[in-house]
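Design request, tokens follow.
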């Protein structure tokens, strides 16, 4: 059995710097880099087996701490990284909540205790507003956890165009969803402008463009899910049948 943790911490750092997390699950010996998202929210997805958690009075606990410093390609902890000045963070999950497919979001503020943990319902989403030159894009950002533990946890962004209340919209599913809308998520130049693109392409075909479901990639499993199905890679076949359905937004 294992549980998925979505760590979220708000922190503005200078360009070229990054945030890391270190904890009991890796023996406090290596730092796992967080990913920057819109609004200076840094995230890290952890999938931890039950044996990685400490047990205390019918509950499971995990301790961790954030660090900041120069972005590094290695998971080793460079001496230049600065630890938070607070005591170690600790979150607890009741034994009854530690069930197969369990997912939790952990909210943190840099150098402020405590961190808060809550179970993450499958339908829960947050609204993300992206400001670009002359345009504003609003997304619903979902956190997807495969209960069968075949596809690794990831974000799924949903863009819903303006449309009449009674309109039935097609749905366009896209890979590498982190690149589609937000230039700040890109490591090179700019985003792919998906919202502008579908408006332009669909403009001559129908009045309303499709809903866009942007599935983020997991760099560690990218080449397990993208090979063509005729290679008979089990994870690839499961990913090919993965179709998250757009939902109405509910705030985190």
């Amino acid at each position: 059995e294992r549980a998925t943790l979505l760590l979220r911490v708000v922190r503005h750092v200078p360009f070229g710097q990054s945030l890391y997390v270190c904890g009991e699950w890796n023996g406090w010996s290596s730092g796992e880099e967080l990913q920057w998202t819109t609004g200076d929210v840094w995230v890290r997805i952890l999938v931890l087996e039950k044996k990685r958690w400490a047990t205390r009075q019918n509950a499971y606990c995990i301790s961790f701490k954030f660090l900041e410093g120069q972005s590094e390609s290695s998971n080793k902890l460079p001496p230049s990284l600065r630890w938070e000045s607070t005591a170690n963070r600790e979150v607890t999950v009741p034994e009854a909540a530690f069930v197969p497919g369990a997912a939790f979001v952990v909210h943190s503020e840099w150098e402020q205790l405590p961190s808060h943990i809550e179970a993450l319902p499958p339908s829960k989403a947050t609204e993300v507003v992206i400001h670009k030159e002359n345009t504003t894009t609003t997304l619903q950002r979902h956190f997807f956890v495969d209960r069968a533990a075949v596809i690794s946890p990831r974000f799924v962004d949903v863009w819903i165009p303006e449309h009449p209340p009674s309109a039935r919209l097609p749905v366009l599913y896209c890979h590498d969803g982190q690149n589609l809308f937000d230039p700040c998520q890109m490591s090179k130049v700019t985003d792919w402008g998906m919202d502008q693109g579908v408006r332009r392409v669909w403009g001559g075909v129908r009045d309303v463009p499709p809903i866009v479901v942007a599935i983020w990639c997991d760099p560690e499993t990218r080449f397990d899910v993208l090979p063509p199905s005729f290679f008979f890679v089990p994870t690839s076949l499961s990913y090919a049948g993965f179709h998250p359905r757009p939902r109405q937004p509910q705030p985190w």
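Comment from the thread starter after seeing the answer: thanks! The helical segments are 194-202, 222-225, 234-240.
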